[in-house]
Design goal:
Elements (H helix, E strand, L loop, with lengths): L19 H31 L6 H5 L14 H18 L6 E5 L6 E3 L4 E5 L9 H17 L1 H16 L4 H35 L7 H7 L6 H4 L7 H9 L11 H4 L3 H4 L2
Parallel strand pairs: 1-3
Antiparallel strand pairs: 2-3
Helix pairs in contact: 1-5, 3-4, 3-6, 4-6, 5-6, 7-9
């Protein structure tokens, strides 16, 4: 009997020439693109829907309790001085909802506006500002968040995030959601900066001192590029450049302690 000898296949072998890694990458990029488009489309809808809600209505719903509005005796004079300044700014900002001043003795240089109407000023902020104008810009920025109704938009944004990422892996949701929402929030911050410049120019006739806080904070160092992708605020240098390139003029500023003498007690 003749011995069987298997023949060798010639030509192309029976395997796929497709690069599965590239296909997987393309699928991932496509998925992110679809989610991002859906996110921004839904947020455009949220922004349009907000216009049908009477201005200030959301702050009445989430109105702070009396206990939240209590002012510590040692903060009373400082609150009065900052309230006087914000009232001057609001004559230009035209914020309709009720807000109140809160002093937070924290070394973190920051100020924030909350849905319950609280405009919180950290005492650590005073060490990074040289003039009344510099503080006025920071306060005007927070008033701009009230005016632009960023808080109720944020609630809508949270609902959109829950819809888009509620079904996926928790870690993946945090990464994708953080990157996309961060970009959306940065646009709000940039808009608040622009409005703050307008308010400052309206109140003082110029925008001198607007970059004081950013210039001081920049000395502490910006986050690296990758981390900044997930942060809610634009890079400090970009904010400084936007101020310097604005059409508003720069003039001499008023010393911080001239009309805000209580600030000295809380400088660190």
């Amino acid at each position: 009997m003749a011995k069987f000898i298997p023949s060798q296949n010639e030509g192309e072998q029976n395997y796929s020439k497709e690069n599965h890694a590239i296909n997987f990458l393309a699928l991932g990029v496509g998925l992110v693109a679809v989610i991002a488009c859906a996110f921004f489309a839904l947020n455009i809808f949220v922004g349009a829907a907000v216009k049908f809600i009477p201005e200030g209505k959301e702050y009445k719903i989430f109105k702070a309790s009396e206990s939240e509005r209590v002012i510590e005796p040692k903060h009373e004079r400082l609150v009065r001085q900052i309230r006087t300044l914000t009232s001057r700014l609001n004559s230009c900002a035209k914020v309709k909802n009720e807000y109140f001043i809160v002093i937070n003795e924290s070394e973190i240089p920051n100020a924030s506006a909350a849905l319950n109407g609280a405009l919180t000023v950290n005492t650590g902020l005073f060490s990074h500002i040289k003039s009344e104008n510099g503080l006025a810009f920071v306060l005007a920025h927070e008033l701009a968040h009230f005016k632009h109704r960023d808080h109720i938009k944020g609630l809508g944004n949270g609902a959109v995030m829950a819809i888009l990422f509620g079904f996926s892996d928790e870690r993946l949701s945090q990464i994708l959601g953080g990157a996309i929402a961060g970009k959306y929030s940065r646009s709000q911050e940039a808009a608040a900066d622009n409005e703050a410049l307008r308010i400052l120019n309206c109140a003082y006739g110029h925008i001198g001192g607007a970059d004081e806080f950013f210039a001081s904070a920049k000395k502490l160092g910006d986050s690296d590029t990758f981390i900044n992708l997930f942060e809610s605020h634009p890079l400090l240098q970009k904010r400084i450049d936007a101020i310097k390139s604005s059409n508003f003029g720069m003039q001499n500023t008023i010393k911080l302690e001239e009309n805000l003498s209580e600030v000295v007690k809380f400088k660190r």
